[in-house]
């Protein structure tokens, strides 16, 4: 690829006491691409992504965003670079509707200093329609919404505030087949808009359906990164379990 990566993480290290949770890992991500990050629990994939999101900065290594060195010490720093994380738990306020969740802490006010509910609802409809045209009940409390709709709200919030880089942590873990298909559509839509996505997942079917490349991490080490159309699920499973690259043909 000739273009500059959206994200480059170079030689990342993170230790917790004597444990090397991330050991000299380098990965990158291009615009409009999904990179699956896979490995056993405790392999280091979440720690690596938390360095990018600013939740747990690494001890060593550098992060480049659009080819320029980035200082990411906190989630607020990450947001400045257009990085948002969609956690499995989604961090939504259950009793509030979609517009209230979208604009929480960044409400649109009228010139009289009151909440501009109509403007917030209109903006929310616009962004959600782009993602998920069948989702119209945006003024219901979030707790009454389906898992796929909740994902839509969380993603809408990220992209409304100009996220260009999304970290999605197990986005389909608690969802049924229909909901999983809805989230897959959301991800394809984001890719088409040039957003880059790191997808942390245990589900190799998901990873193969949605990712352009897959990076395998084991015991804090990057075993390798492969294009998903050039490896089989069995080969990736071998990388996860054995920590070895598939034999070159």
Summarize the structure.
This protein is α/β, with parallel strands linked by helices. It has a domain at 7-82 and 164-242: P-loop containing nucleotide triphosphate hydrolases (Rossmann fold, 3-Layer(aba) Sandwich), CATH 3.40.50. It has 8 helices and 10 strands.
Give a verbal description of the structure.
A hairpin with a 2-residue loop joins strand 4 (60-65) and strand 5 (68-70). With 249 residues, the chain is α/β, with parallel strands linked by helices. It has a six-stranded mixed sheet with strand order 6-7-8-3-9-10, with helices on both faces. Strands 2-1-4-5 form a four-stranded antiparallel sheet, covered by helices on one side. It starts with 6 loop residues before the first strand and ends in a 7-residue tail after the last helix. The chain has a domain at 7-82 and 164-242: 3-Layer(aba) Sandwich (Rossmann fold), CATH 3.40.50.300. Helix 5 (147-160) runs parallel beside helix 6 (177-192). The radius of gyration is 19 Å and the shape is globular. The protein has eight helices and ten strands. It has helices at 45-53, 75-80, 98-102, 117-131, 147-160, 177-192, 204-210, 233-242, and strands at residues 7-16, 19-29, 34-38, 60-65, 68-70, 83-86, 165-169, 196-200, 213-218, 221-227. Helix content is 33%, strand content 25%.
């Amino acid at each position: 690829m000739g273009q500059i990566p959206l994200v480059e993480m170079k030689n990342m290290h993170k230790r917790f006491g004597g444990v090397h949770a991330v050991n000299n890992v380098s990965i990158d991500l291009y615009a409009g691409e999904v990179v699956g990050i896979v490995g056993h629990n405790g392999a280091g994939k979440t720690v690596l992504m938390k360095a990018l999101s600013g939740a747990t900065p690494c001890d060593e290594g550098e992060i480049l965003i659009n080819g320029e060195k980035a200082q990411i010490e906190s989630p607020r720093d990450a947001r400045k670079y257009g990085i948002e994380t969609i956690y499995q738990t989604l961090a939504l306020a259950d009793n509030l509707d979609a517009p209230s969740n979208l604009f929480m802490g960044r409400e649109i006010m009228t010139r009289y200093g009151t909440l501009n509910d109509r403007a917030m609802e209109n903006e929310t409809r616009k962004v959600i329609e782009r993602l998920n045209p069948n989702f119209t009940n945006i003024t219901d409390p979030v707790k009454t919404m389906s898992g796929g709709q909740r994902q839509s709200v969380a993603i809408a919030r990220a992209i409304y505030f100009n996220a260009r880089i999304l970290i999605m942590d197990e986005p389909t873990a608690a969802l049924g087949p229909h909901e999983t298909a809805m989230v897959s559509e959301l991800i394809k839509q984001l890719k088409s808009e040039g957003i880059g996505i790191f997808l942390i997942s245990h589900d190799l079917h998901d990873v193969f359906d949605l990712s352009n490349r897959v990076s395998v991490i084991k015991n804090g080490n990057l075993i390798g990164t492969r294009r998903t159309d050039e490896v089989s699920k069995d080969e990736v499973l071998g990388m996860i379990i054995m920590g070895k690259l598939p034999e070159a043909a």
